[in-house]
Amino acid sequence: MTETTENQRLRVDIFSDIACPWCFIGKRRFESGVEASGLGEDIDVYWHAYQLDPSLPEHYEGSEHDYLAKAKGMAPEQVSAMMEHVTAQAAGEGLNYDFANLVVANSFTALRVLEHAKQHSLGNEMKEALLSAHFEKGLDTGDTQTLLKLAAQVGLDAEQLAADLEEGRYTDEVNADIAQAKQIGVTGVPFFILDGKYGISGAQPSEVFANALTQVHAEVNAAQ
After folding, report:
1. Which is nearest to 190 in space by CA: 208, 173, 172, 175?
2. How many CA atoms lie within 13 A of 42 on its CB side?
3. Which of 48, 71, 86, 110 is the most exposed place for a label (fewest CB within 10 A)?
């Protein structure tokens, strides 16, 4: 009688910014890939902070259209076309982007809130809430009170979080994630690392994630 062994779990690290439109699309496609692979119970996801634009002020006076035109040096009509393309891609994943009402804000405080949520086993729920707030609901993700309300909605203790933010907690963890991304050569997000060694860059189609997860999971278990 042969002894059965449990499957080794597959670790997936995801570097992402809550102010990155492709990160929300990538999250959905990754989730679809996990579902298609049938490995949902064998995968552990770890979210890591990344900032596309650390220089953004806490509150930016202007629209997302204005910001992108200035930041990327693109013509207004190019920005409009890019937004239409991203909105269509998001819609294909069941997401309802609203760039007209998006509030441009520095994401650092939101990333600290996400770190708090991760430490209370609600990282994925908080990540989803932050991305939806920013891209679908037109909420100010740079505003602490808004962030506290979102945190409470996913089941976190808003009073404790407020005290932690006031004390400057989670700043080091966010900076450590950003430094780690730089160290391993991440220049754009979302960026996925499977089993600590296989990188997938960008919001790839769900089949790409499903195939990669299946292959790496099999490799991990063959090596045990």
Report:
1. 208
2. 18
3. 71
Strand bridging mode 191-194 / 10-16: antiparallel
User: Taking the CA of residue 183 as centre, how many other CA atoms within 13 Å lie in the half-sphere pointing to its CB?
Assistant: 6
Q: For the CA atoms of the chain, what is the radius of gyration?
A: 18
**What would the 3-class secondary structure string for 179-194 be?**
HHHHHCCCCCCCEEEE
Strand-pair partners of 47: 14
Q: Which two tokens stand for residue 192?
A: 């996925």
pLDDT at 3 over 60: no
Say how far apart CA 16 and CA 110 lie, in whole Å.
Answer: 12
Give the model's pLDDT for residue 58. Answer: 82
Average pLDDT value over all residues in the chain = 95
Contact assessment for residue 48 and residue 177, using Cβ atoms and an 8 Å cutoff: yes
| Distance in angstroms (rounded) separating the CA atoms of residues 120 and 103 | 27
CA distance 87 to 158: 32
Using the predicted structure, report yes or no on whether residue 27 has a pLDDT greater than 70: yes
Longest dimension (CA), the chain: 70
Whole-structure pTM over 0.85, yes or no? Answer: yes
Helix spans in the chain (H): 21-37, 64-72, 76-91, 108-119, 123-135, 144-153, 158-166, 171-183, 206-222
